[in-house]
Design brief:
This protein is α/β, with parallel strands linked by helices and 307 residues long. Helix content is 43%, strand content 14%. It has two domains: 185 residues, Rossmann fold, CATH 3.40.50; 103 residues, DNA polymerase, domain 1, CATH 1.10.150.170. Helix 7 packs across helix 10, helix 8 packs across helix 9 and helix 11 packs parallel to helix 12.
Length: 307
């Protein structure tokens, strides 16, 4: 069962208008979308996802609430193009929930989980050509080191990559638990005590397979360019790399230019068009953490267009 993280906080953060146009850029299993649709009886919802399983499930779920929605099968990197195809130039709110859904994690066949044995896959879009199998078996040692270090912040990247390359010289690495064993064997005991030894490497491979960080910054900028005055963007991140990108883009769009920051009277046209709704990220409550351990790393940031 999928449990949406920071559900109330993100929906409230969007400041929904009953006749507004909203975009859920990461539909998943319609946790956030169903809440939005219930509150915009005279408005319209566009929901984007590239996972056909999620789309099929969510279409039925949303149909029980209303008909004022369209599901777009695409990656949110195409949000501007897809909305403009449908004659939508301006929107009252965007929601991005950047986590992998519990359904995807718990479905062993998808290969996202380091707890279940499955073919190495990790594709959000099952029609995409690049899978975890390709990354693990075909990337050079240096490329593996780079993605494990940059996307997983794994300090044992070199030894893990070396051991993967050694192993695959004898046979291809086919399954998740095969990879977990190689990672675990590469780490000292102290690195295995607190958290699962494969967590960081699996995160890194998933990000690489789905190009998650490559597309994020441009997608946020596209959303900002389409936002109506008083409209908001709410973004939920699950690791420091995503959060850093969101924080930096929001900062750039909400700060006064350093050259004129100290002036006593700054003309209106030099003031930023956006403001931060929350200066610090909103994190899950103690209650939510007890109910859903997967929410522990979640952070919510919200920005509003003010002119």
């Amino acid at each position: 069962m999928h449990i949406s993280v920071l559900l109330e906080e993100s929906i409230n953060g969007l400041n929904l208008k009953s006749d507004g146009v909203y975009v859920d850029c990461t539909l998943g299993y319609a946790g956030h979308s169903s809440y939005i649709l219930k509150r915009i009886k005279r408005g319209y919802l566009f929901a984007i996802d590239q996972d056909q399983d999620a789309i099929d499930y969510s279409k039925n779920k949303l149909n029980e609430i209303g008909e004022n929605f369209t599901i777009i099968k695409s990656n949110f990197s195409n949000l501007k193009v897809e909305l403009q195809k449908r004659n939508i130039d301006y929107v009252d709110g965007f929601l991005f929930d950047l986590g992998v859904s519990s359904v995807q994690l718990d479905n062993a066949d998808r290969g996202f989980s380091y707890h279940h044995d499955a073919p190495l896959d990790m594709r959000m879009n099952k029609e995409a050509s690049l899978s975890a199998y390709n990354v693990v078996n075909e990337y050079s040692k240096n490329d593996l080191i780079k993605i494990f270090f940059e996307y997983g912040e794994e300090k044992y990247s070199k030894i893990i990559a070396s051991n993967i390359v050694k192993y695959r010289e004898k046979k291809k690495i086919q399954t998740t638990l095969e990879l977990v064993q190689i990672i675990s064997d590469s780490l000292p005991m102290k690195a295995k005590r607190d958290k699962h030894p494969a967590r960081k490497v699996f995160q890194a491979i998933r990000i690489e397979v789905n190009h998650e960080l490559d597309i994020l910054e441009d997608s946020i900028k596209d959303a900002l360019s389409m936002l109506n005055i008083d409209g908001r963007i709410a973004i939920i991140t699950f690791h420091s790399l995503e959060d850093r990108i969101v924080k930096n883009v929001f900062k750039k769009y909400t700060e006064v230019d350093k050259k004129i920051k100290g002036l006593p009277n700054i003309p209106d046209n030099y003031l930023p068009d956006f403001k931060l709704v929350n200066k610090k990220p909103i994190e899950p409550s103690e209650d939510e953490l007890k109910k859903n351990n997967r929410s522990r790393s979640a952070k919510l940031r919200i920005i509003e267009r003010i002119k």
